[in-house]
C-alpha cells in the first residue's frame, strides 16, 4: 500500500483521469473529492463488500429459484389484466 500525506486542498492523481482531493478535515474525519470518468464505479468499502456478497448470492441461484421467480411475475401480470 502506498501511503501519502496531503493537506487540505491538496490532491493525488491516479493515472491521467482520476484525481482525489482533500476537501475538508474535521478532527479524525477527512472528506475527499474524487474526479473520475463516469464509467469508473466508486463505492465506500462497506457498500462494495455488500455488492460483492449479493453478486455471489445471485450467482448461486439455482434453476428452481429462477422458475419460482418467473411464476411470481406471471401471477403479478395476470392480476394486472383483470
Net shape: elongated
> So how many helices?
2
Describe the strand arrangement of the main beta sheet, using strand numbers: 1-2-3
Q: What is the overall pLDDT average?
A: 88
Number of domains: 2
Distance between the termini: 61 Å
H/E element sequence = EEEHH
Overall helicity: 40-55%
Strand elements, count: 3
Spans of at least 5 consecutive residues with low confidence: none
Report the portion of residues in β strands.
15-25%
Structural class: alpha+beta
Q: Output the radius of gyration.
A: 22 Å
Main beta sheet: strand number and arrangement? Answer: 3 strands, antiparallel
Short overview:
With 82 residues, the chain is of the alpha+beta class.
Describe this structure in words.
Strands 1-2-3 form a 3-stranded antiparallel sheet, with no helix packed on it. 0% of the residues are buried. The protein has 2 domains: 1-40, no CATH class; 43-82. Helices cover 41% and strands 24% of the residues. It has 82 residues and is α+β, with helices and mostly antiparallel strands. The longest helix is centred in the C-terminal third of the chain and has 19 residues, at 63-81.
Amino acid at each position: 500500500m502506498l501511503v501519502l500525506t496531503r493537506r487540505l486542498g491538496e490532491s493525488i492523481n491516479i493515472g491521467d483521469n482520476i484525481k482525489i482531493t482533500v476537501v475538508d478535515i474535521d478532527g479524525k474525519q477527512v472528506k475527499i473529492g474524487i474526479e473520475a470518468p463516469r464509467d469508473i464505479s466508486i463505492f465506500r468499502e462497506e457498500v462494495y463488500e455488500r455488492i460483492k456478497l449479493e453478486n455471489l448470492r445471485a450467482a448461486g441461484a439455482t434453476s428452481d429459484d429462477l422458475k419460482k421467480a418467473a411464476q411470481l411475475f406471471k401471477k403479478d401480470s395476470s392480476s394486472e389484466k383483470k
